[in-house]
Design brief:
It contains 17 helices and 22 strands. By secondary structure, the chain is α/β, with parallel strands linked by helices. It has three domains: about 90 residues, 3-Layer(aba) Sandwich (Udp-n-acetylmuramoylalanyl-d-glutamate--2,6- Diaminopimelate Ligase, Chain: A, domain 1); about 220 residues, 3-Layer(aba) Sandwich (UDP-N-acetylmuramoyl-L-alanine:D-glutamate ligase), CATH 3.40.1190; about 140 residues, Mur ligase, C-terminal domain (Protein-Tyrosine Phosphatase, Chain A). The protein is globular, with a radius of gyration of 24 Å.
Amino acid sequence: MIKRTVGQITAMCGAKRQGGYEDMLLRGVTTDSRAVGGGGDLFVPLVGERFDGHDFAAQAAENGAKAMLWQKGRDIPADLPDVAFLVVRDTLAALQRLASAYRNELMVRVVGITGSNGKTTTKDMTAALLSTQYSVLKTEGNLNNHIGLPLTLLKLDEETEVAVLEMGMSGFGEIELLTKLASPDLAIITNVGDAHLLHLGSRAGIAKAKLEIALGLGEDGVLLYNGDEPLLKEGLAESALPEGVTLRTFGLGADNEWSADDIRLHPDQSVFAALHRGQVSGLGTVHIPVPGRHNISNALAAIAAARFMGVPAEAIHRGFKELKLTGMRIEPVKAFNGAVILNDAYNANPTAVRAAIDLVGGLESFGRRWIVLGDMLELGPEEAELHRGVGAYLTPDAAEGVLTCGPLSANTHEGAKASLREADEAGRVIHFNDKDTLADWLKNRLQPDDLVLVKGSRGMRMEQVVQALEKG
């Protein structure tokens, strides 16, 4: 974590210091008064529509904060005489300036990752591979926005060699802000899906927003992007990239720099031959502990990043073997009777759901394959048709039963009925109004050799269905 004096931090974030304490050493930064560690933290009170962090200054001081950023125009508390106050025009902007200045003082290489789907999995994979050779810090949880990314940068130690940073967004300009704060040496775009259509209008708009990540690259920077995405290629043709940036590709298509062959999918892993420029690479056969062709694409991005940073083949295999993925991303778990559940309940959009359907369709050594889908949120005015399209994408080759839940998923149900006529006639294409009823219905019919995929947007909390099936 950052260790700087009050005077140094004052200069780094452009503040005006009230009182003394210039040489007092601060260790760490937090925006949560409850999370002050007692080691001399800097507390940053943020201001929102319904909250004001300045109201918690006394609590932060009681917990050990020794300095605070303080928004200009607010009275400085007279009852906190042992705290240094650093006055700024805007505490959030000052936090971002501090993080950027700190990052630029460190001898650290940064990998920035964005994409509609797969960025968290790719982050986990990339960090796992790089950790075999370097001291690595990665984004934790959902700290991938204009607040979380600066806080992650400020967690870097002087000895950290590589930072793997996830960059999320919902609108134009957000990735540009994050990438310019982080100044990545390598930027990865996993794909272009349908997430955030509500704010960006089209998939072409999403591609344009994702390509903003290149704006933070320096002269020797590398943009590693999914070459299977035509919208990225089109967007790059219209983008003004920083001078000297190198373009590299990964993906399942044979024309990518990094691609895959001899793909074998299992419920708990994927196996493939890693190809470099169309030839079998020194990696040979790769095993990753997560199923799905889309996750092979994510793994190829991680491999390309690792090879760019000099990680040898043996270490890459070891990194995948020791990989721990963030939960609820096609996480295999056992139902009460031994049936396999693929818990993919963290989030959903049409692209990600179709990828999950393809995965289930490729797993044939099961009794019945059930697909359980909740609503996909933030899809904009075409949300009903997009849900209906996902339903129509389902075929008898992919599943023997489809259960939906949520008001938007009624459209998914309608789309699935026509393409799954036999399953519908057997009463296995059903829409439910609540998750409890769905889980109870499925528990009474689930066989030990069945497979269940559960997916939906975060707001739907579809993991509750998984938990019910686990308990029985």
